[in-house]
Amino acid sequence: MRIIQLLVISCILFSCSETNKNQAFTPGQLWPDNKGTHINAHGGGILHFQGKYYWFGEHKGSGEIGNTAQVGVSCYSSDDLYNWKNEGIALKVVENDSTHDIAKGCILERPKVIYNAKTRKFVMWFHLELKGKGYDAARSGVAISDNVLGPYTFVKSFRPESGFWPVNVQPYHLKPVSDTIKSTYCGGKGCLPAHPDSLNILGRDFKNGQMARDMNLFVDDDGTAYHIYASEENSTLHISQLTNDYLSNSGKYIRLFSGRYMEAPAMFKHNDKYYLFASDCTGWAPNAARSAIADSVFGNWTELGNPCIGKDSALTFYSQSTFVLPVAGKKDALIFISDRWNPKDHTDGRYIWLPILFEKEKPVLKWMDTWSLDVFANE
Ligand code: GAL
Questions:
Q1: Nearest atom within ligand 1 for CA of residue 43
Q2: Which residues line ligand 1 (CB under 6 A)?
């Protein structure tokens, strides 16, 4: 009798719907959290910490203002990756100061959290656009917390690498340049391509810092962390080593795929090689994904083409890359995570999770209506 009473009480306290029910991934379907509401953590990233997974992402609203940050960065936790508990808002936008860098109504995209074992701090980076300025600011934001769930405290926002040249700077970058130049390329929307190297956008932004829009973080096995961001009017990716405390860019960075207009970068490691997934630059509209490989982060990167195969592979299965998650306890288990955006109602944006398969050194993504972690071998 006692046990039944206890069960009833815990059911009332913690809600019966909290029992784990998902046992598989169903890409593109609604993904209810522990309260039955579709997960609201878009453009997200997942941290594995002390046996649990934490999913941070953009809390989006519906309607026209849906892509401006009205709330902040959501956090969900999970033991098994299938079932997620809503842990609330990890970083809140600032409501009472419209001039604050993360004022309510700013654009705060693609948040990622990493743990710094030396400082024992959780560090969040995100792409920040200042309130009322469209996508012109192109800044990086940093927030910090002692606890994985937050609250995270805003530290600063800036354009990275001001006063530093990349390791692969070219002589023409060092020549004087007008500070008014702007690339005319606008991502597959009918504008004429302008090659960034002829404009020297890198040189234009040398003094005040490089533009940083779509971004990701990657922590290597030795604890060195990197910030990967779409720069130079989105034309060129930069990979920048972070300082030991993960709070700043170190000044050591490399330019990649100049003039390829890659967005949505997601970096990972497999068999001692470094990989990148990315997209073309077409806003919310899906396009064909890109992939690339290198022997070292600051080495030569080689494009490997579209990793997707089969139906809708030319549109990344109607989605755009967001993150690559290594699965704990499974051998070579990597999950490709992307967003199927719905700009008419961002709250209905769907998540595509697929296992990364390899054909020799090339990562391959095949559509699966449903799949589970059983596709990966145990360690
Ligand atoms: C996408 C980008 C998104 C968002 C969107 C705005 O290309 O990946 O994060 O910035 O453009 O149009």
A1: 9
A2: 43, 109-110, 214, 263-264, 283-284, 320
Enter the DSSP assignment of 243: P
Kindly report the protein residue whose alpha carbon is nearest to atom 11 of ligand 1. 283
For residue 38, which of 353, 338, 348 has the smallest C-alpha distance?
Answer: 348
Question: Which residue's CA is the nearest one to ligand 1's atom 2?
Answer: 283
Closest C-alpha to ligand 1, atom 5 = 283
Residue with CA nearest ligand 1 atom 8? 264
Give 67 Cα–ligand 1 centroid separation in angstroms: 10
CA distance 243 to 226: 9
What's the gap in Å between 59 CA and the centre of ligand 1? Answer: 15
Given the candidates 2.115.10.20, 3.30.200.20, 3.90.850.10, 3.40.50.720, the CATH classification of the domain at 39-158 is 2.115.10.20
Is the overall model pTM greater than 0.85, yes or no?
Answer: yes
Question: Is residue 130 within 8 Å of residue 111, measured between CB atoms?
Answer: no
| Residue 305 CB coordination number (10 Å) | 11
Residue 185 CA to ligand 1 centre (angstroms):
15
User: Mapping DSSP to helix (H, G, I), strand (E, B) and coil, where does residue 329 land?
Assistant: coil
Per-residue model confidence as pLDDT tens for the chain (379 residues): 344 444 444 444 444 445 568 999 999 999 999 999 999 999 999 999 999 999 999 999 998 888 899 999 999 999 999 999 999 999 999 999 999 999 999 999 999 999 999 999 999 999 999 999 999 999 999 999 999 999 999 999 999 999 999 999 999 999 888 777 776 655 544 454 566 777 889 999 999 999 999 999 999 999 999 999 999 989 999 999 999 999 999 999 999 999 899 999 999 999 999 999 999 999 999 999 999 999 999 999 999 999 999 999 999 999 999 999 999 999 899 999 999 999 999 999 999 999 999 999 999 999 999 999 999 988 7
- The helix/strand/coil state of 4 is helix
